[in-house]
Amino acid sequence: MTDNEEIELLLSNIDNLNLEELSIDEPTIKEEEEEKTYQSYMGAEIHEEHKIVSQLDEVTKESEAKATELFDIMNDISNDLLFSDEKVESLSSNLNKIKEKLNSQENKDESLVSDVNLAIEDIKEIKNICNHANNVLFEGMSLMQYQDINRQKIERVVNVMRSLIKYLNLLFEGTVEDNSRTSTPSHISGDHSNDLVGNDEDLESLIASFK
Amino acid sequence: MKILVVDDSSTMRRIITNVILQLGYKKDDIVEAENGQQAWETLNTDTFDVVLTDWNMPIMSGLDLVKLIRNEEKYSGLPIIMITTEGGKAEVVTALKAGVNNYIVKPFTAILLKDKLNAVFNN
């Protein structure tokens, strides 16, 4: 059964599902600790993944690391191609020697000479393919310049954002330190909230209920 | 022949090095630096025949490196090629006024870099 078919079956039986029977993975200690790493400011939760400049810095760092890995791989392939080229050159040289020896014989086997010639032609073709592959690989390496170009584009955006943050910080600078400021009330008379204490009577009865 | 390649991007340094190796130079002929400051320190410890430098780098930019080099009498004849994403005419003029001998805008082709290097070496 495919994944989609499984999902369809599940959805068709959804009314019969007993949610209490479904096993729910309890968060692991690591997950709980990760939850605690987010910052909470004025009720807005900020996770590491939401931090714009930090995430963009991660992107540039990781893309450079992966580009280096890719370069290593391409270098390996290039080295193998160069090695193959050397082997092919050696093979070609040996076949040419064989051809010369065959041609110098009085009763030479013409079909053998023909086979050797074909082999020499095949070797030339392999050599051309190796050279072409190496050139294409080199072009690919050149295209990796775009990793650096795109990194610089991202850094430009990051620098603009950082300048904007500094500008906004200056603009909103006050004369009272943050820790000296009055804390913000959660509910103020006039708010559109169902949680307000309606009148003095409601307030008195709420207080009385705790005594 | 000794070549100093200056770029904060390790990818770019490898690309440039690859092109230089294709010209027939050896790995030992090439020295890398990650920024202008490192390049300046390296220049003062060895003798180089050409400097290939990026512009935008941390700690010390390529432009500042060029100005430092041109301020030193002993480096007056040292060829400098700037290889950078800065593609504006104003930037090219700024670099030429600072003392670069040639200028390449990224992305570049291997042939272009080879031609510019050959022109420098032939001079």
Please describe what this structure looks like.
The complex is a heterodimer of chains A (211) and B (123). Chain A has 211 residues and is an all-alpha fold. Chain A contains six helices and two strands; from the N terminus they run ααββαααα. In chain A, strands 1-2 form a two-stranded antiparallel ribbon. With 123 residues, chain B is α/β, with parallel strands linked by helices. Chain B is 44% helix and 17% strand. Chain B has a five-stranded parallel beta sheet with strand order 2-1-3-4-5, with helices on both faces. In chain B, α4 (89-98) links the parallel β4 and β5 (102-105). The longest helix of chain B has 13 residues, at 10-22. The mean pLDDT of chain B is 93. Classes of the chains: A mainly alpha (211), B alpha/beta (123).
Number of continuous helical runs of chain A: 6
Radius of gyration of chain A: 37 Å
% residues in beta strands of chain B: 15-25%
Radius of gyration of chain B: 13 Å
How many β strands of chain A by DSSP? Answer: 2
**How would you write the strand order of the largest sheet of chain B?**
2-1-3-4-5
Query: What are the secondary-structure elements of chain B, in order, as H or E?
Result: EHEHEHEHEH
Helix/sheet category of chain B: alpha/beta
Low-confidence stretches of chain A: none
Q: Mean pLDDT score of chain B, rounded?
A: 93
Averaged pLDDT of chain A, please?
83
Low-confidence stretches of chain B: none
Which strands sit side by side, in order, in the main sheet of chain A?
Answer: 1-2
Query: Tell me about the biggest sheet of chain A?
Result: 2 strands, antiparallel
Indicate the structural class of chain A.
Answer: mainly alpha
Distance between the termini of chain B: 13 Å
**Amino-to-carboxy terminus distance of chain A:** 62 Å
H/E topology pattern of chain A: HHEEHHHH
Number of helical segments of chain B? Answer: 5
